[in-house]
Amino acid sequence: MAKMKIKKGDLVEVITGRSQKNGGDRGKQGKVISVDVERQRVLVEGVRQVKRHTKVGTSGRGAKTGGIITQEAALHISNVQLVDPETKKRTRVGYRTETVERDGRERTVRVRVAKRSGKDV
């Protein structure tokens, strides 16, 4: 399985699907809430909102819970692309290796880089 280039907390943009003027999510930007590596899916804040009907019940204090809840549904990782922190436009992800000295040892660290501007992500 390929390595996931998008991590939790990244700002991403939806690149496929229906356009916003037709009621879709293409072009919307949002923060990644969670990443499912096995299924290759991401949950993006404010994107692909679905209504979920939950059973009505009562909590410990007697308040009613349940009803219709709006929440995000998962998107496939190929349908989103990372947003460049500098230009706020979508970009590809690259890697740069650096040698960092920790605890008296030199270690090589891979740093994610935005291809559009060259800035660290």
Automatic annotation (TrEMBL):
<protein>
    <recommendedName>
        <fullName>Large ribosomal subunit protein uL24</fullName>
    </recommendedName>
</protein>
<dbReference type="GO" id="GO:0005840">
    <property type="term" value="C:ribosome"/>
</dbReference>
<dbReference type="InterPro" id="IPR008991">
    <property type="entry name" value="Translation_prot_SH3-like_sf"/>
</dbReference>
<dbReference type="InterPro" id="IPR057264">
    <property type="entry name" value="Ribosomal_uL24_C"/>
</dbReference>
<comment type="function">
    <text>One of two assembly initiator proteins, it binds directly to the 5'-end of the 23S rRNA, where it nucleates assembly of the 50S subunit.</text>
</comment>
<dbReference type="InterPro" id="IPR003256">
    <property type="entry name" value="Ribosomal_uL24"/>
</dbReference>
<comment type="similarity">
    <text>Belongs to the universal ribosomal protein uL24 family.</text>
</comment>
<dbReference type="InterPro" id="IPR041988">
    <property type="entry name" value="Ribosomal_uL24_KOW"/>
</dbReference>
<keyword id="KW-0699">rRNA-binding</keyword>
<comment type="function">
    <text>One of the proteins that surrounds the polypeptide exit tunnel on the outside of the subunit.</text>
</comment>
<keyword id="KW-0689">Ribosomal protein</keyword>
<dbReference type="InterPro" id="IPR014722">
    <property type="entry name" value="Rib_uL2_dom2"/>
</dbReference>
<feature type="domain" description="Large ribosomal subunit protein uL24 C-terminal">
    <location>
        <begin position="48"/>
        <end position="120"/>
    </location>
</feature>
<keyword id="KW-0687">Ribonucleoprotein</keyword>
<dbReference type="Pfam" id="PF17136">
    <property type="entry name" value="ribosomal_L24"/>
</dbReference>
<comment type="subunit">
    <text>Part of the 50S ribosomal subunit.</text>
</comment>
<keyword id="KW-0694">RNA-binding</keyword>
